[in-house]
Amino acid sequence: MNDQEFNQRAYSNPRDGGEDFKAALDASPDRQRLVSELQALEYRLEQTLQDIAIPANLEDRLKRNGTQSSSNGENTAETHKPVPAPRRHWQRFSRPAAIAASLLIALSLSFTVLTSRPTAADMALGNSLLNHVHAESRFYNVDNNIPWSSASEVMQQTGASFASFADVANEMNLTFAEFCRLMGNDKRGTHLVIRGEHGPVSIMFINHHPIRGKVELQDSELRGEVVPVEDGFLAIFGSPDEPIARIRTRFQRQLTWSI
Amino acid sequence: MDKQPVSTNNQRRQAYESIVSSYYQDVYRYAFWLTRNANIAEDLVQETFMRAWRSFDSLQKSSAAKAWLFTILRRENARMYERYRPELVDITDASLAEDKGGEPDQFRDRQELHQAILGLESDYRDPLLLQVIGGFSGKEIASILDLNSNTVMTRLFRARSKLRDTLTSETPSDASTTQQESQ
Fold first, then answer.
1. Contact assignment for A50 to B29 by CB distance below 8 Å
2. Which residue of B lies nearest to A8 if distances are taken between CA atoms?
3. How far is CA A148 from CA A161, A172, B23, B71, in A?
4. Testing the interface with A: which of B50, B168, B169 to mutate, by most A Cβ within 10 A?
5. RNA polymerase sigma factor 70 region 4 type domain location, by residue (chain B) (predicted)?
6. Phi first, then psi: what are they for A257, rounded to 5°?
C-alpha cells in the first residue's frame, strides 16, 4: 500500500481495522503519527456529533404512534398525526451529560437558528399548494385579462371577500379565477392568478383551516409564502424573482372572511 | 426480530418497538444535524417512524433496519423541508459567553469543530454524518446516498481533510490534492 492509498484509507475511516491497513500502519512512524492525529480528531468529532440531547419521552411517543395505528385496525397511520412534542424543552435534559448537552445546544443555536417553526402539517400544506400550482399552471390564461367580477363570484361561494375590490382591481391584472380543491375533496378554496412582474402569480385562500405560522417554500420554478389569516390561510406563489412579500401584503390587507 | 416480516399485529408491533428502542437516538441525532433545528428534527423523526410503521412489512431483515430508517428520514426531509426557506439569523453573540461555564477551552474546541462541520459542503458533510452518527460502512452510505462506494470514500476523505485544515491550519500530507472524485 503506497502513501497515497494509505492516506485515503486513513482519512476515509481513521478506525479502519483492515489487516492490510494495520500492516501498512506498522511499517511507518509517519503513518502512525497521522493516524493518531486523525483518531484524536475522530474522537472530538464523535463527541460533538453524538452528544445531542434526545427529547424527553421521544421513544414512548414513537412507540405509541405505532401502537395507536395498530389498535385502530390495520395500517391506519395515513390518517394518524404524530403525537405533539411537549413544549417543556428543559425536560429534555435529563441525562447526566445535561450540562454538555446544554452547551452543545447553545452552540448550535449560536450559529444558525430558524426564527419560526413550521409544523409538519403546515409544511405538508405548503408542499401540496406548491404542487397544486405546478399542476394547474397549464390551465392559466396568462395572455388575456379577465374581469375582477369573475373573482368576486368565486370568492362569494368560498366565503371570502376583499375589503375593496376596486383597490385590488386597480392595482392588478387578473388572468384566472376558479374554485380549487386545495384541501383534497373536503374544502373548496379560491385560486386566482394575476399578472406579476415576472410571470403569473397564484393567490390561493381558504377559510376554516388554521395554520400555526408562516411557511416559505421554493423550488427551481416557484417561490411562495403561506400565511395565516384569522381562521384560514393565504398562499402566494410566483417566479423566484417575483416580489412575493409585497403582493402578499396587499392581499393580506384586503382579504376578509364572510362565512 | 430476524424472522421478519412478522405475521401478526402483535409481533409486528413488538418488532417495530424493538427497532424504535434500538435506533431512535441515532435517527434523532442525524435528523438534528441534517436540519440543525431540534423541533424540526423531532417532527421529522416522528414522520420517519410513522412511515416506517406504515411500510413495516417491506423490511425484510432487521439488520437492514437502521439504513432503512435513515433512508426514509432523508426522503422525508427532502419531501417536507428542503423547499422550506427559513429566515436564518446569525446569533453568534455574547449569549455564548454566558453558557460556557468553567470549561473555556472545551467550549472553544466545540465551537471551532461545530463551525467547521457546519462549514462543510453538504456533499461532504452528509457521508460524514452517516459514518460517525450512523456507524455505516462506505457501502451502506453509498446505498443510502445513491452514490458509488468510491465517491463516498473520496468525499469522506475530503470531509476530514477540510476539517483538519480548518482546525489546524495545516494541509494534510501529500494526498489532499491528488484525490479525484469518481462517480
1. yes
2. B157
3. 12, 9, 56, 48
4. B50
5. 110-163
6. -105, 135
- φ and ψ at residue A225, rounded to 5 degrees: -135, 145
What cell was used for A213? 405560522
Are the C-beta atoms of A3 and B122 separated by less than 8 Å? no
Please report where in the chains the cell 438534528 appears, as a residue.
Answer: B32
3-state secondary structure of A193: strand
Domains and CATH numbers, chain B: 1-88 (1.10.1740.10), 91-170 (1.10.10.10)
CB contact at 8 A, A99 and B107? no
pLDDT tens sequence across A61-83: 898 876 565 554 444 433 344 45
Number of H helices, E strands in chain A: 9, 9
Query: Which pLDDT tens digit goes with each residue over A128-161?
Result: 888 888 877 777 666 788 888 888 888 888 888 8
CB B46 within 8 A of CB B10: no
Q: What are the residue ranges spanned by the domains of chain A?
A: 3-50, 58-111, 120-257
Side chain identity, residue A199 = G
Residue B138 has a pLDDT of: 93
